[in-house]
Design goal:
312 residues; alpha+beta; Uridine Diphospho-n-acetylenolpyruvylglucosamine Reductase, domain 2; Uridine Diphospho-n-acetylenolpyruvylglucosamine Reductase, domain 3; Uridine Diphospho-n-acetylenolpyruvylglucosamine Reductase, domain 1; five-stranded antiparallel sheet; four-stranded mixed sheet; 9 helices; 26% helix; binds flavin-adenine dinucleotide
């Protein structure tokens, strides 16, 4: 790794513009990497200094601290290729830093179906695969063919077939196993039967139903409950068909809509969003998360699980 690369490693950079919650996090070290060699160099730098490191994609699913005592590795490899030469599908080969809205738009324009929901999700392909992101009954994992990932211990790359990625609701092998950094992803989408309006319809839905203020999207997963839950809480029977209870409903019914802590606020428009209302700190967001967990557990006996990652 040349001397030039180490000059790219900066100290005291603000990540405010690189996370959708707009938290002014200052990591001890920060580096933007554009290729695999730089990724390996960044990991090696952190190991030599004996500090933790953290991969940042679109910063749209994280709650960052004021100071991160390690190296933040920002993946700035955003290219992707669309192959529409096939007669019944559209294929995509994307680096992990590729932006979901760009990829979703091009797939839809090429006639592919199934990724329209990602048009309004401000993350990257890497972050989306890790958390099996999805909406409107469609998930990244449904269309992933293979994932190429770098092992941070051996520096060797491995290609995972879809079934090895262990995709599940907001989960994957990569979320459970931090030894791998996703580098490249291949996906395939069936061709739509007719021209679809879903891309714009979903964008409109988000505009209407989600807060405009900075946020990290849905904070909690929608909890699945046992059959007996509905006997204890008959007012919840209306959600039985869904197979889960919407987190927003549980938060609202605990009277937490609009609650504020250190500039962070539980959105009134959609209570499963915590917004940056006024120079919020990660601590403020975290306090609200703990408050929700405590109150929902007390009232309904449900353990709420965060969808966002709280970085320490
Ligand atoms: C307005 C808004 C709407 C949203 N709507 C949705 C939605 O409809 N559905 C949904 O599922 N999510 C939604 N989200 C959440 C979020 O955008 C997605 O989960 C997204 O896929 C996260 O990607 P990211 O690149 O921003 O990840 P980041 O926030 O940067 O990182 C999240 C985690 O992934 C890890 N990570 C990132 N890149 C890699 C990589 N290459 N290899 C290994 N680990 C990596 C990070 O270390 C971190 O642990 C929304 C967020 C916002 C702000």
């Amino acid at each position: 790794m040349g001397k030039d690369f180490f000059q790219k490693i900066k100290e005291g950079t603000s990540l405010k513009a690189l996370n959708t919650m707009e938290i002014d996090c200052r990591p001890r070290f920060f580096v933007e990497i554009e290729d695999e060699e730089e990724l390996k160099g960044a990991i090696e730098f952190a190991k030599r200094k004996e500090i933790p490191f953290f991969v940042l994609g679109g910063g749209s699913n994280v709650v960052l601290p004021k100071i991160y005592q390690g190296l933040v590795i920002y993946i700035d490899k955003t290219d992707f290729k669309i192959d529409s030469s096939n007669k019944d599908s559209v294929k995509v080969d994307a680096f992990s830093g590729a932006r979901l809205p760009d990829v979703a738009k091009q797939i839809t324009e090429a006639g592919g179906e199934g990724f329209e929901w990602a048009g309004g999700v401000p993350g990257t392909i890497g972050g989306a695969v890790r958390g099996n992101a999805g909406a409107f009954d469609s998930f990244v994992g449904d269309y992933t063919k293979s994932v190429e990932a770098l092992n941070i211990n051996t520096y060797k790359k491995k290609v995972f077939r879809a079934e090895e990625c262990e995709f599940n609701y907001r989960n994957s092998f990569f979320k459970k196993n931090r030894d791998y950094i996703i580098w490249r992803v291949e996906m395939e989408f069936p061709l739509a039967n007719k021209e679809s309006k879903k891309f714009n319809e979903y964008l409109d839905y988000r505009k209407k139903n989600h807060p405009e203020e900075p946020s990290a999207g849905s904070v909690f997963e929608n909890p699945r409950v046992e059959e007996g839950f509905f006997s204890s809480f008959p007012e919840m029977k209306k959600f039985k068909e869904l197979g889960f209870i919407p987190a927003r409903y549980l938060i609202e019914s605990c009277g937490l809509k609009g609650k504020v802590d250190c500039g962070a606020k539980i959105s009134e428009k959609h209570p499963n969003f915590i917004i940056n209302n006024n120079n919020a700190s990660g601590e403020g967001v975290e306090n609200l998360i703990w408050e929700v967990k405590k109150r929902v557990k007390e009232k309904y006996g449900i353990d709420m699980k965060e969808e966002v990652e709280i970085v320490k």
